[in-house]
Amino acid sequence: MALAVYARTQQRSSAAVEASTQYQRLLQITQEEIMRTGVLKVEETFLDACLLVISLMNRYEGAVYSPDSTKTKPLITSLQSWSHHDGAIAILRIWYEKLSHRPATLTVKQTRRNLVKCSLLRNLRLPRWMVDGSRFGERGSELDYDRVISQTVDLHFECTTLQQELHPAIVEAERLIMQIQKLDTALQGWITQISKGESYQRHVLTLDGPWPKKLLFSPTVYEFPNPGHAALWSQFFATRLLLDGLRLKISMSIRKGSATSSTYEQQRQAWIDRLNTTAEHLASSVPYCLERFQVKRKPSSPSSESRITFNMNEVINPCLANLVVWPLTIASSLRELDIRLQLWFRSQLSSLGKIVGEGILECAESDQWVIL
Q1: For 202, phi and psi rounded to 5 degrees?
Q2: Is the full-model pTM beyond 0.85?
């Protein structure tokens, strides 16, 4: 996996060949070991090792995937890595049924988190046994957020199903909207608790000054106590985008209800405006996550006086890039967003894909990209 990432980020073909050779060898060894040992070998270290190997193979598939304008299949149906996800679910279920009475290992917890994200992208309902994050090591504020995102994944599946119905049931639509409102309230409670009262400071750059338009969606940027704090707020904005997008989809699916066309249009426009506003919050948070600017203040000056300097020529740290990959993945996948926001999110995600060595992310600007 490391060779594949190195080959992609540094454009080294020899490393790519060696990575492919080792990957094929690993596939064969893994298959032989599983067939020799069998899935009945229920040992924590063995299951952890299987989950870790699958995670690395999945990462390899993502690293070597290349955007191809000749490909017509959507990304969601053409990825070979989905088979690794299915394998991880099977092994995780064995752990759940046989070993969940023990504390979950970090590998188990991280595997489930990744599978929750994959289920959203693939529009799958979470298996009932996977819904409760506390069984997989989630605690405290992490569990609070996990409950929101896990239920959101299932709501996404239900909303998509509702959209496909010729005559959607108004009662069912209203039930889903109530659930979305409850999750939105829980999400706001989570960010209030996790941020400990610390929010962000808004800076508006003067339009006649030099500001890097390729890095910023607008002259408005948010300053946070640190990049990790900014990542939490980005996660909040992205999840809220997802919930707002679902609410908009439901309202569109019941358009033929009792509301008049003018009333419907007003409601629809209000939700679109809220969706775009939340997206602008996320866009204003991303630059600080990536340490693209610094705010310098003079000790003797009023707190309102500050000078912003941009790090335009510095290479983004891959660790910082990974902080915003998931929020950008969500934002870039919502067709209801203003087209300017969509293009900016996709451009940012594609650029970060080159930095972290993730070929799948480089597809963000193509027609193959995932639509939620």
Answers
A1: -90, 130
A2: yes
